[in-house]
Amino acid sequence: MTEDHDEHGIERNRINGSYDLKLEDFACALCKKILWKPVVCKNCSTPFCSACIADRSDEQSKQCVNGCEEFVESKCPRFILQQLGRLNIACANHQHGCTEIIAYEALEAHEAECGYQQQSCRGCETVLPKKDLVDHENKCDLFDLTCSECNMNFKRRDTDLLHTEFKCLKEQFRQLRNQFETNKNATSQQIQHLSSIHQQLREEYEAYKQLAEEQVKQIIVKNYEFQEKFEPNNKPTNERINQIEQSVQSCKQGSDGKIQDLIETLEKYKKADIRCYCGGHFCRTCAGCSDWKRDGNNWKRVDSQAMIDSDLWCLDLLNRSVILALLYELVLINIPNTSTILGRDMYLAFDTISINASCFALPKNHSKCTLSTPELETPKQNLLNTFLIDYVLKSQSIKATTSFTTLLEQLNSNANVQLPYILPYENTGRKNVTTKYDFTRAVVTIAHLIPLKNEVIVASGFAVLDGGLIVTCAHTFYQAARHLSCSELDQKSQSIVITDEGELIPVATVESHLVRSDIVLLRLQGGRQIPSLAVDPYPAPKSTSLLSYNFVTASLTSTSRPTISYSWKPAEVLFYKGPYGQEAATGTYDELSAMMYSHPPSNGSSGGPIVNEETKSVVGIIRGSEVNYATRKSIGFATPSECLFEAFKLPGMPDELE
């Protein structure tokens, strides 16, 4: 509001028109003007201007002018406000030319924006209407301006030309000189610092140079002293070396016949069955039989009632004693190519044998042999294991397949090999794969068969590309390798793929082994092909719904055909881990080494697929389970399917760029 009523009320002469109201009834009891922003006393309902009440002293504010015991401020009744709203009032700036008549309720808003408000010029302090102020200040000679070049303030009456030609240029020169001095000081300090470093480096260089020269002198002196000390003994040493060479040559010529006899005997032994003469298995630690136990004067086979005479045992023990003696003698004469003559497996086995008299006496208690393996017999109720082992030992077609020992060697030789194929990006799945049966046909069971130990190690896998490549985990190979021995029967150990229809297909080669990802790709024998699965190149986000392959059991039907029992367990992605066990996230530059999911896999599921429930594309390869200590529950972990693409060529990339 303006100074005319000064927030204390409205002069009555500003009321426009006539009303059937007594203006005295709507006057402030203090300023006697028309009420403005009224309040009332709660005790006597006397109205006042709010500004009049605010101006009263603390003592006066406690008393009402009508003699009430205490003034208690309250809101003005609605009736008074309605009657005041009927009034039309002239603008407070009517003396300065404003002719507007405004309703009571709109008066404050109008006067705040009225162009006839009196304001002072910021230059000459002349009082004039608000609407004329801008034009006046744009022409006022005393108005302050700021130079855009030097930021100096000057009056408009100081012409732009005078300021530009003199003051502005002078100010700019002063600023440039200050900046030059600042840069000069900084540069000087930097030069001093660099000079100090240069001097320090020169001193260090001179010190190292002097030290190196002294060390060279010491080496020359020591070399001279060594030559003086060595020369007197040089001639006797050369003579002694010649004598040793002649002695070795003489021994070699004299033992040629003996070595040849040993080699012929060992060749016969290598061609013989590694098993004992009695049909038991050879203990590579104490040379005893691990399949027979003494029963009085006879020997009784552990897994049957068959009996043999102890004389046969003694004959077998004698034969083995002769072989061990020959091996020991061959090693004692330190033939350089002993490992070549014996073969790697036999030489390593002999390297673990401690030759002593007790090895050629009565057989030992094998439960105390630290290197002996426990008896691993095929359970009588597990007909499938017996069927598979007999298939390996008796089938004629299996003889041409690759042995398990060779596959182990290929795991190392083909480590991290990139195959010359392109694995398609199938993150949206395949249109012809809609049911669980459609993608179960591509899942296989892999059996690592160790006939010597009657052992069968089971894993899972699935086909990719044209169906001739099988993806599985590498750790199951190493689990099976622990049961191998140096026996020639281990050459009959095989890895066989059992299809969903019960067909047996031997594994031909290990095409590639991704060491860090625990992934191995196998080639089926004879170019055989089975249905394959689509593989998603992108990691599944957290909470993605999954179907995890779950191996249940393997059995043999009445028609002697293997059958695999399985199920698909619903699960979801929990989180990912990096190569050092830290939690990683999709959609970032984090390396994803393991996918943790909610359902722990069963034994035998390693290498099996985990598919996206929606697209039916593979998003993970099962590896195992672990305990989540946050929830104290077992969860599964798998290799993300994107790691599988490291074994294949990149699509659209030239060979020389891969």
Automatic annotation (TrEMBL):
UniProt keyword Coiled coil, yes or no: yes
Keyword terms of this UniProt record: Coiled coil
Coiled coil regions in record: 191-218
InterPro entries with a match to the protein in the record: Peptidase_S1_PA, Znf_RING/FYVE/PHD
Pfam families given in the database record: Trypsin_2
Recorded superkingdom: Eukaryota
Listed name of the protein: RING-type E3 ubiquitin transferase
Organism of derivation: Adineta steineri
